[in-house]
Amino acid sequence: MSAVxxxxxxxxxxxxxxxxxxxxxxxxxxxxxxxxNTHMSVRVPGEPEHFLINLYGEMxxxxxxSSLVKMDLEGNVIGDQGxxxxxxxxxxxxxxxxxxxxxxxxxxxxxxxxxxxTIRNGLRPISQDALHVLDDVIYHDYxxxxxxxxCEELGRSCATGSCVVLxxxxxxxxxHTVHGALMRLYxxxxxxxxxxxxxxxxxxPVMVQDYIIERAAKRMKAMRLTxxxxxxxxxxxxxxxxRKGFNYRR
Length: 250
Hints:
Blueprint: H1 11-30, E1 39-44, E2 47-53, E3 69-72, E4 77-78, H2 86-98, E5 104-108, H3 111-116, H4 128-133, E6 137-140, H5 148-157, E7 163-166, E8 170-175, H6 178-198, H7 210-224, H8 231-242
Parallel strand pairs: 6-7
Antiparallel strand pairs: 1-2, 1-5, 2-3, 3-4, 5-8, 7-8
């Protein structure tokens, strides 16, 4: 860990940095990367106007806790490190402004997510994966990247859901916890993968019955409201990336 950084931050911020660095390595492990062009962030504990994001140019498996960039919601870098993805800032700041309950935001360009994003209202109740997120899915029209207008529009879209299909773009999730945001994205990605496969089969898919959809939505909404949502899955994934041996907690 950097001897320069540690005295200038709280233990809570350092833990948030370690968690976000781990999240980048988990994302790499799951194969959700697009070179250097997607991004995840966390809000700094106790500092609601500040968030952490990756140093633009680092591959996800190179990211460490001390290499993360600290920013405010107006685009100012806090400290010395400052190269960030401008479109990433637009996305993350817009959500943090609009959703004070959000402490983590994840954004990907996976093949399944980008493919599904070309269809408005493309997710259907055809899998148990979709039932995990369907009641919380919103669709956001493609906007001008890195613009003030897109920042505001995305904030308005995310006011009504935490699993976002960015049309013609990819996927995004947000959560009160890192593991909650990750679990949402995992299930949304799975739902997109099944949907893309189903659309290539040449047969109409079997739809889940309405009463099951309603019961699943009620159950999943209750689960997502807890801080335990996704915790065990997160712990297991962190153990997997830790076994690879790279010290990202520095």
